[in-house]
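Annotated sample (chain length 509).
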Amino acid sequence: MNYLIGIDLGTSSTKTVLFDENGEVISSASKDYPLYTPQNGWAEQKPEDWRDAALETISDVVKNSGVAAQDIKGLGISGQMHGLVMLDEAGEVIRPSIIWCDQRTSKECEEMTEKIGRERLVEITANPAMTGFTASKILWVRNNEPENYARCRHILLPKDYVRYILTGEFATEVSDASGMQLLDVPKRQWSDEILEKLDIDKNLLAKVYESPEVTGTILPEIAKKVGLSTSTVVVGGAGDNAAAAVGTGVVEDGKAFTTIGTSGVVYAHSSNISIDPQGRVHTFCCAVPGAWHVMGVTQAAGYSLAWYQENMGTSYAAEAKEKGCSAFEIINKEVEETPIGANKLIYLPYLNGERTPHLDANCRGVFFGLSSMHTRKDIVRAVMEGISYSLTDCKDILAEMGICVNDMMACGGGAKNAVQRQMMADMYGCNVNTVTATEGPALGVAILAGVGAGIYESVEAACRKMIHTDPAKECKPNAENTKQYDKYHQIYKNLYTALKDQYQALAEL
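Output written by the structure step:
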């Protein structure tokens, strides 16, 4: 039997999983690490923490599995995107990594737009300048820490730093590199035009591979330390969402997935490059060679429900404790007892501004139609519907771009909620399925490793072998429910248009 390792380098922890070639979990381990906020709006982590977590968890899964080192054929790494890792000439970390959620680079985004032009930036990188992406972070270091920038000899993304530790190779791959805003996304290579206009030395950047390509093998000293073989191949891997797509089988046209975590993501596979000129959704290279993905992101999907429970729905926790059940069991029961439209109550989930479809940092949450008849049942249903409307906005933009979705997978925390899944199926107008595995990105990059190791001929073939759906949890759309939701969704969309100027006025007070 052949075995594969998938590493998922997240913001709060790194999780490493050992799979057999059929996608079954053999062993897993995880290790947490801190996030630092030295100033308001800043977010940093120490790459050394990622290194230590990766080495420790690899060692643990190998040791606990009893699998021989030579039978572990490949390793793939997934990771949080957009983080900036800067190394000096000796390959040592220069400063803590500025990670994806850091917001310090608004001036640098203006600088990028001025030097390149917004339309040209979207044409090449498929996205307007954004504070979360890596290019603006590089400019920030150059503008504010010139001594650190002068020492820099290598620029890597978080997962690619772990690759360097494992293999000694400076490499990245197209899906993660797409989020740097230095890649020509249609051409799948570094953009000489962008680099020249931003005056960034191309030699600082790693070599770009396709996600299942072999980028190196395990260094002898690392192999000895963690129990792997020096013949174990390390493939390109993928950014977190691209890896999750592979881990849920979203690797062919017509397939998409929805993730409801703190934020919400609707991600669709596309064999053809499709870019939204308005920049409402992200287009990146995906982990399937020669293909792309289009992704809409909402800021406060799962967070909206958590916020409601913590601030207005505290009675759910007390009641759940008294009854010996989970709060979600009570919430779901009440949502099912309440009619579609929550008795004419609509919630806009813009607690922290919004990305898709509005790109508006100033918009805020709203309960519209609130009256004395409404109870906690109506409010919690309105919140859950508002989350689903925001995700449907994302899917509608995909349709507008000519990307047809007829098979939707649900993953993340929201996938566990059958009521939320049915709501999505009704609003989307398509079946919503789940996979039996819960490893997501780790499974996705293990699949890529299987392709790189020659166990499978393609990513699609590997997914058919290693991914299994759960027919018992499939949700099919109810046509009558879809009609009802459409009426309320139209009002939901009109509300943003009506309030847009007032959001701006409120922000300026």
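Annotation: The mean pLDDT is 95.
Annotation: The chain has 18 helices and 23 strands.
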